Amino acid sequence: MTTLSGPAAAAEGPFFQLTSTAFADNGLLAKKHAGRNPANPNCVGDNVSPPLAWSNPPAGTRSYALIVHDQEGRNGLGVVHWLAYGIDASVTALPEGAGDGAFKGLVGGKNILGQGSYFGPCPPKTHGPHHYVFTIIATDLAPDALAPGLTMPQLLEAIGSHAKGAAGLIGRFGH
Questions:
Q1: Which CDD domains does the entry mention (predicted)?
Q2: Architecture of the domain spanning 15-173
Q3: Residue 149 — left, alpha, or beta (φ > 0 → left; ψ -120 to 50 → alpha)?
């Protein structure tokens, strides 16, 4: 998260931002936020999505989409850890654990496992910490406009010209 100060901040005013009480921007994610998969020795966590909050959305926002993506995953091909969309504009936060797939008020897209829920980080032990980019996108779409189960490319195409703005936050995780 970039913070403006001085005359630039006064000129810009409040900006759309995404934060978490669980980690600072570019901070380390706790082990509980890492993925859990007994078949994968790199998945050492509890698979609990971190709490997220956003503020100062762009005018005309009707819904939000959330993407959690590891661009370093799969040797640079990327890994989608969570797609959630159809989040009503009146919602300004998701509590810890909201990515369990049962949380009301969001629609799940397909993560790396093809599931509509959060799947936490599982970087190889031979890598350094990966950077997990949390992006909240404000849209002018109605919350029920998109079908469940979209992939990231499908979601981005469906949002297209309906995107009003975005805010991001980076969490790092490694062994």
A1: PEBP_bact_arch
A2: Alpha-Beta Complex (3.90)
A3: left
Q: What is the pTM of this model?
A: 0.91
Q: Which residues pair with 83 in a beta bridge?
A: 67
Question: Helices H, strands E: what count in the chain?
Answer: 3, 9
Q: Give CA–CA dist 132/129, Å, rounded.
A: 9
> Phi and psi dihedrals of 2, rounded to 5?
-95, 135
Q: What six digits make up the tokens of 108? A: 């799940």
Burial 126-138 (b: 16+ CB within 10 A, else e): eeeebbbbbebbb
Cβ within 8 Å of residue 159, ≥6 positions away: 65, 137, 139, 141
CA distance 117 to 135: 16
Question: Each residue of 44-54: pLDDT tens digit?
Answer: 999 999 999 99
92-124: b or e for each residue (b if 16 or more CB lie within 10 Å)? eebeebbbeeebeebbbbbbbeeebbbbbbbbe
**CA separation, residue 127 to residues 25, 39, 82 (Å):** 21, 19, 21
pLDDT tens-digit profile of 120-144? Answer: 999 999 989 999 999 999 999 999 9
75 Cβ neighbours under 8 A, 6+ residues apart: none
Domain coordinates in residue numbering, the chain: 15-173
